Amino acid sequence: MQKLALPLETITFSGELQQLVPESWFDDGYILDMDHFVETISCIKSKGFRPDLIGSFITKFAYKFLPGLSGSGDERTIANLEVSPESVTTSWMKKRVFVETLVAILPPEKESIPCNFLLRLLPIANMVGVDPLYRDGLEKRVSWHLDQASLDELMIPSFSHTCTTLLDVELVLRLVTRFVHMNEAARSGAALVKVARLVDWYLAEAATDSNLTLSQFVALATALPSHVRAADDALYRAIDTYLKAHPGMSKQERKSICKLVDSKKLSPEASLHAAQNERVPIRAIIQVLLSEQSKLNKHIDLGGSFRGTRIPNPQPLEPLDACLSMNEMNAQQMEIKRLKEDVLRLQSQCMAMEGQIERLLEKKKGLINWKKLVNFVKS
């Protein structure tokens, strides 16, 4: 296979980068000589092209020749350059060198490479076993854009022999930790909220794996500050999924995982579900009920203060305005009444559950005493 004989110094750069790069540059000869490709990138950089255009050139090169990035099914890939059985190891080594070279020549600017490309490149880098230095650099770049990631892109399988989970939870934890510890000027509060939502969705998927340990779940759930979650409904769903997939958890373990949820941040629907959930410890249910009671009291106080407000020299209301005010007050009273009924129902269910637990404990205590008596008689 003959490589293009095109001296780099004779290349003239004009127009967009997509126009200046001939399709013939992407033939197999250039893949076999990564040094020449690196020289080409260096030449383009020296001409002062924008980092995003350089990144576009690199991603086009990678999509064409690296399997798993584009899913186009193109047979002219680096994995198929050698087809003989004895070349499997050689092909694997070439793939690793290819990925390491890509990571090394990426422009340093944050917005030069799209997030979805980096997230597709990351699992391939882990699969071929790139040097930790390159892997660390790639993870750092991904963490810059973590708020732009989707759940599907974050579902990266684990390629480590020491990892027992299907998903690479430790990798996601490293990405989230890096993102949180970024300079505050480099990330916004809105980005933190997006990542928190993404983490809760990811936890709900990862929680179905029976090999996911409690410490892994807790570490990822607490990797973000608690104040960035406006609501804890998604986190509660993830915890409930984990409790379903791990029925053998001890009472103390269930208590510790349920402490992750702030009951004050649960919606009425999530609170009702938690209060009726047999997998949730009694103490956590009581906390949910107390939070709902507190919310109800606030509603009542607001309603009372609204009715007790006196406006000096009030102007007479028009009939339509008076009608609207009465409608609003009636709607508020109906909402308060509904909340009261919900709280009373939840309290009744909680008391019934406590009674059942007490009866079970009494039966267990009686059984233990009976066994002691039998052993005493036998002795």
TrEMBL record:
Annotated NPH3 domain residues: 23-295
Coiled-coil parts of chain: 329-363
Keyword DNA-binding: no
Keywords, alphabetical: Coiled coil, Ubl conjugation pathway
Highest taxon of the lineage: Eukaryota
UniProt xrefs under InterPro entries: NPH3/RPT2-like, NPH3_dom
Keyword Transcription found: no
One protein family per Pfam: NPH3
Family: Belongs to the NPH3 family.
Protein's recorded name: Phototropic-responsive NPH3 family protein
Species of origin: Forsythia ovata
